[in-house]
Amino acid sequence: MSEARRGGEGRGRRDDHGRPRDQQGRTRSGARGQGGPRRGYSDSRPSERSRRSTPSRQVAFEGLRLVREEDSYANLVLPRLLRTHQVSGRDAAFTTELFYGALRAQGRLDAILAACVDRPLEKLDPPLLDVLRLGAYQLLDMSVARHAATSETVALARSVVGAGAAGFANAVLRRVGEQDREQWIAQVAPDRSTDPTGHLAVVHSHPRWVVRALSDALAGHGRSRDEIDELLAAQNAAPAVSLVMRPGLTDLDELIDHGASPGRLSVFAASWPSGDPGGMDPVTQGRVAVQDEGSQLAALALALGADDLVLAEDHHWLDLCAGPGGKAALLGGLTVDHDADLLAVELAEHRTQLVDRAVATLQEAGCEITTRTADGTAIGAELPGRFSRVLADVPCSGLGALRRRPEARWRRTPADIGQLTTLQRALLTSALDAAAPGGVVAYVTCSPHLAETRLIVADVLKTRQDIEELDARDPVRAGVLPAARGDIELGDGPAVQLWPHVHGTDAMYIHLLRKRPAPTEEGTTAA
């Protein structure tokens, strides 16, 4: 049939009102057949008419943008966005999984997206790349129907980037959806036999240098490098919400009445089933807070476990790097039993305010806690030999807390380690100077990196003849629940390194040191 004949048939078929009919005899809607605008339709093409995406996905996108553009902390930005957009309940749970999951999986997602995009990912608009990561994570890691993950992500792209980006996102996500996660990993990850670090970096979504550092840390702290898969997998698992009971202000029975359950390790811990416990009265009243059990054990090793190790008058305690105040509150609450006071020092004013809030209820209850904005590296010179117990929980790379701060793995670089170790060395030196003869210093990091842990202590001890190492294992056990005390693995000592895949905590490093007691007139040391 010729084009001319087809056209002639179309012109000849009309209804009783003169409106054109199609080949099935149906009348075209509106004024379409008369050359005018289509009534009942938008001016946009069908692909451009989709609705906006859901508030959950909008919140996850805004969170990624703030983390990327403003170096915001994931654990601080998400609760605020959820409140602003009034996202709660199951939607909040979905948003949390999507936001944190996309952050953790960013490296693996980028490797897959790079195989689906015909240009380097660095050439994409950063907001569009954020959208693609969210869409890919829904397709590959969440139980979201494929059509819903794609259409909602396309709508998000249209809303936050533009119509052209929506079409691009649609095409890319359709390619991503052609294979499942395991098939994509098999395609994009380097072969483990020839490039084990590169393979693990893609499979477990960690930068190569972090994979190497954690593998070295396992070996350096007396464990097998073969545990690296378990460790990396544990760092990608969403951590349980751990609560800490402020000493003397509440008990486990009260928290159980609110829906919590007993903690796993710490004598001051409780476990929260899921979601944000921030609305619970004991939390709003400052009697309970959210704190990883590894952090609790680090503080308790000094506050409880060092009772038999301190060989000085035990009345003045120091938290040298106190912000945001979780460990300071635990220490401060335990000063009462020792008739001691606590000085909590923090360098940044806004973090000192966080410490103030953390200890306010304890202060009202009578604990002698003083907060101060000051440089911790100068305290040793300013207040030499004053404190019987000193906590030096130094700033670190956070490689042991990647479960809670997934953005840190992409933000940190090897160069950061060098800068941090200079500061860590200065802070430990200051802590030792501030310790009284016979006083105990706890050097603590939330990183297992050897350069931030064992090597720092070894470097400082080379320059000090007045310091002795203590076995931290029994002091750590002092803060462990009796039922778990006999089973907990604490290595060969003298320092203790906790691990996410072994202890279910952040990878806290705890090294106890004591300033040698002053010699007496008889030539012995004072006890």
UniProtKB/TrEMBL annotation:
<dbReference type="GO" id="GO:0001510">
    <property type="term" value="P:RNA methylation"/>
</dbReference>
<dbReference type="InterPro" id="IPR001678">
    <property type="entry name" value="MeTrfase_RsmB-F_NOP2_dom"/>
</dbReference>
<dbReference type="GO" id="GO:0003723">
    <property type="term" value="F:RNA binding"/>
</dbReference>
<feature type="binding site">
    <location>
        <position position="393"/>
    </location>
    <ligand>
        <name>S-adenosyl-L-methionine</name>
    </ligand>
</feature>
<keyword id="KW-0489">Methyltransferase</keyword>
<keyword id="KW-0694">RNA-binding</keyword>
<feature type="region of interest" description="Disordered">
    <location>
        <begin position="1"/>
        <end position="57"/>
    </location>
</feature>
<dbReference type="InterPro" id="IPR023267">
    <property type="entry name" value="RCMT"/>
</dbReference>
<dbReference type="GO" id="GO:0006355">
    <property type="term" value="P:regulation of DNA-templated transcription"/>
</dbReference>
<dbReference type="InterPro" id="IPR049560">
    <property type="entry name" value="MeTrfase_RsmB-F_NOP2_cat"/>
</dbReference>
<dbReference type="InterPro" id="IPR029063">
    <property type="entry name" value="SAM-dependent_MTases_sf"/>
</dbReference>
<protein>
    <submittedName>
        <fullName>Methyltransferase</fullName>
    </submittedName>
</protein>
<keyword id="KW-0808">Transferase</keyword>
<dbReference type="InterPro" id="IPR006027">
    <property type="entry name" value="NusB_RsmB_TIM44"/>
</dbReference>
<feature type="binding site">
    <location>
        <position position="346"/>
    </location>
    <ligand>
        <name>S-adenosyl-L-methionine</name>
    </ligand>
</feature>
<feature type="binding site">
    <location>
        <position position="375"/>
    </location>
    <ligand>
        <name>S-adenosyl-L-methionine</name>
    </ligand>
</feature>
<feature type="domain" description="SAM-dependent MTase RsmB/NOP-type">
    <location>
        <begin position="214"/>
        <end position="516"/>
    </location>
</feature>
<keyword id="KW-0949">S-adenosyl-L-methionine</keyword>
<feature type="compositionally biased region" description="Basic and acidic residues">
    <location>
        <begin position="40"/>
        <end position="51"/>
    </location>
</feature>
<feature type="compositionally biased region" description="Basic and acidic residues">
    <location>
        <begin position="1"/>
        <end position="25"/>
    </location>
</feature>
<dbReference type="GO" id="GO:0008173">
    <property type="term" value="F:RNA methyltransferase activity"/>
</dbReference>
<comment type="similarity">
    <text>Belongs to the class I-like SAM-binding methyltransferase superfamily. RsmB/NOP family.</text>
</comment>
<dbReference type="Pfam" id="PF01189">
    <property type="entry name" value="Methyltr_RsmB-F"/>
</dbReference>
<dbReference type="Pfam" id="PF01029">
    <property type="entry name" value="NusB"/>
</dbReference>
<dbReference type="InterPro" id="IPR035926">
    <property type="entry name" value="NusB-like_sf"/>
</dbReference>
<feature type="active site" description="Nucleophile">
    <location>
        <position position="446"/>
    </location>
</feature>
<feature type="binding site">
    <location>
        <begin position="321"/>
        <end position="327"/>
    </location>
    <ligand>
        <name>S-adenosyl-L-methionine</name>
    </ligand>
</feature>
